[in-house]
Amino acid sequence: SGDSLLLLAKVHYVQGHYRDAQGMCARAGVDDFSRHEKPVYQLRMLAEAFVIKGLSLDHQSMSGASRVRLSEREEECLSCYLMACDAGLLYLQELDKVCVCFTSCQGPVYSEHVFLCRHVSNCFLGVSRCLRRVMRAVESRGSQSFRKKVARRLAEVLLGSVCEEAYWGPLSPPPPGWLKREGATHPKNAIYPSGEAVISRTPEHQEARESSMQDASSVYDLLSIAMARRGQYAMLSECLERAMKFSYNEFHLWYQLGLSLMASGKNEGAVSVLKECVAMKPQDPIPPLLAAKVCINQLHWLEDAVSLSAGVVALGEGAGEFLPRAHLAIGLCRSLQASDATLKADRDEFNRRALQSLRKAHALDPGDPQISFYLSLQLALVRQVSEAMEPLQSALNIRGDDPHSLHLLTLLLSAQKHYQHALDTLKLAINQHPDNFNLLFTKVKLEEVLFGPAAALQTCAEMLQLWQSRYDLTRLSEEDDTSSIPPDPGPLSKKPSGLHLTLPDFQETETGSQSAPSLAVSRLEQAMSEVSAISSAHRHGPAYIWTTLEHIWLQAAGELFMADGRMKEAQFCVQEAGTLFPASHSVLLLKGRVAELRGNDTEAKSLYDEALAINPRGHQILLHLGKLLVRTGRVGLGEKMLRDAIQVENTAHEAWSGLGEALESRGSAQAPDCFLTALELESSCPIRPFTIIPREL
Prior knowledge:
Residues 3-193, 195-240 form the Tetratricopeptide repeat protein 7 N-terminal domain. Residues 478-501 are annotated as: Disordered. Keywords: TPR repeat. One of its GO terms (cellular component) is plasma membrane. One of its GO terms (biological process) is protein localization to plasma membrane. The N and C termini lie far apart (76 Å). Helix 17 (385-398) packs antiparallel against helix 18 (403-415), helix 26 packs antiparallel against helix 27 (601-614) and helix 26 runs parallel beside helix 28. The longest helix has 32 residues, at 67-98. 68% of the residues lie in helices and 0% in strands. It has a domain at 1-164. By secondary structure, the chain is mainly alpha-helical. It is elongated and about 125 Å long. It has helices at 2-14, 18-28, 40-59, 67-98, 107-119, 124-135, 144-161, 206-229, 233-242, 251-263, 267-280, 286-299, 302-314, 323-340, 344-364, 369-381, 385-398, 403-415, 419-432, 437-451, 453-470, 473-476, 517-537, 543-563, 567-580, 585-597, 601-614, 619-631, 635-648, 653-665, 671-683.
C-alpha cells in the first residue's frame, strides 16, 4: 500500500539509498498530492515523504552535471519542501478540528520549515516567497508557535537582505534590483526554540528557560535593528520594558533597554537600567561609563557620575582602554562642580582634583584628542593660559577640524590679547562649521573689539538670517517640543514662513539723524507683527532653538546697539527677546541696562531686582546691580552685591574693579588690592568666558 511504500522510503533514506528512497516516493504517488478527503495521519506521512524526497535529491551526488541541471535539481528540492510545508500546515488545520492537545503535533511542519530554510538559505527571494506563503495559511491553534518562528525567520531575511527602498508588499511581485548583493547578511544558523517565555527559576526548568531567553533575545535584536533604522527608540524601549518580566539577571536585554532609553531621551530611566547592568556585570567598564555620560551630559548628576566612573577606575588594568576615559569623566565632573561651588575653598579644591584626574587620563592615553582638549580647557579655566597651549596643540594635531578645540584656541589667543590672530583662527573654524552659533557669537565679540560695534552688527544680521534659514518655522510646528535629541535641520522647506528677521535701523540712510516719530512707529508696528508670528510659532520645536534666537537678540544685537549709543534699536532687540521669553532674567537684565543708560536708575534697579529674583546666582545681574547701587550712594549694599558676584565668578575682573571702587569710596585700605587683582585677571581674560565651551563626554 501507499503507507507501506512511504515507510520503506524512510528506511532507504536512513540507509543512504537515496535513489531507492526517491523511487518509493514516486511509487507511492506523492507527486499526485491532493488536499481533499485525506485522513489526518496520511497528511502527516505525506509531509514527511516530501521531506524525504527533498533530502534525497539534495544528498544525491551529481558529478559532472551542468549548471542548468544543478539549477533544475535545486528547483525540484525547493518544490518538495514547499509541498511538505503545505501538507504539514493542512495536517495541523485538520488536526485542529478533532484534537484538543497540540503540544506534540508541531514536529512535522516544524521540520519541513527548517529544511526549507536551510536548503534555500542563499536564495533570499525564494525564502521570502516561501515564508510569506506559509504565513498566509489559515492559522490553527497548533501552528501558533510555528508561525512565530516563521515570522521571525521572515524578519531576518527582510532585514538582512532587502533594501529599505525596495521593500515590496506580500501580494505584489518584487521590484528589479531589490537584493543587496554587496554586504548582504546570511543568517544561516537560526535558532528555533519552542514555547512561550519560561519564568520559573527552578533548576528543572533551566534548559527551557535558557531556550526561551535565547528565542526572546533574537526576536528583540531583530526588533532593535528594525526600529533603530527608523529612529523609533521610544517605541523600542516600551517593547523592551515588557520583556523585563522574564529577564531577571539577563544582561543583554537589560543593556538593550538601557541603550534604547538613552536614545529616546528617557535619561533617568536609562541611568537606573544601566546601574542594574553594572550590578550584573561589575567587570564590564562600558555600562558605568555610559551611565556616567548621561549623568554628566543630560542630568547634571555629578556625584553619581563620579561614583560610576570611580568603579571603572577600581578595575585597574581590567578596564583596559576605558581606564583613561573613566579618569576623564571624573575630571569633567570635578570641573563642573568647581563651576557650581559657592565657596572659594571648595572651588579651588574641585579645580585641583579636576586637574589631577585629567593629567592622569592624559598620562595613560596621551594620544586621545578629547582628553588633551579637556586638560587644556581646565588649565584655561584656572587661568593657566600659557600651559593650556601645549595639550591643545596635541589635540589639534590629531583632530584639526574639531570646532571646540579651534574655539578654545581662539579664546586662548584672545586672552593673550592677540585679537587679530584669534579672529583669523575663528574664521577658519567657521569655514568648516558655518552653522555653529557659538563660534559666531565669539566672532561678534572679536569684531567689536577690532572694528567697532557697527562692523559686528553685520555678523548679527547674518546670524539672524542663518537662524531663519536653518530652522524652518513651518516644519518646527510639527515637531515634538519634548525631544531631548536635537533634530537634524533637514532640507529647507520651500514654503515661505512669512517671517523676516532683520536688525532694526531707526536712522536716516543719508544724514544718520533720527527718523520721524511716525516712521519709527510704523516700523515698530511691522516689527511687532513679525514678533507675534514668532510668538505663535515658538511654542513648537525644541527649546534650544528659541534660546539661540534670544541670545542673538540680547547678547549680540542688543549689546552692540547699546555700545554704539543707539538706544531705540537696543530697545527693539529687547522687545524681540521679551516676546520669546517674557520672564527671562537675561531680558530683564538688558532692559535694566537700557534704562540705566537712559538715566532711569529707579526703573533699572527694579528690573535688576526682578532678574535677581529669577536667577539669584546671576553674575552679570549682581555686577550691574552692585555698580548701580554704588553709583547712587548705597555703597554698603552695592559692596555686598559685588562681593556676591565675585563669589559666583572669582575670575571676573569687572567685579573686582567695581569692588575696588566701592571700597575706595569709603576709604578702605583694601581698595588697591582689588584693583591689582582686577588688572591681573584682565590680562588673562578671554573675549568670552571659557565656560561657554561645553564640558561633555
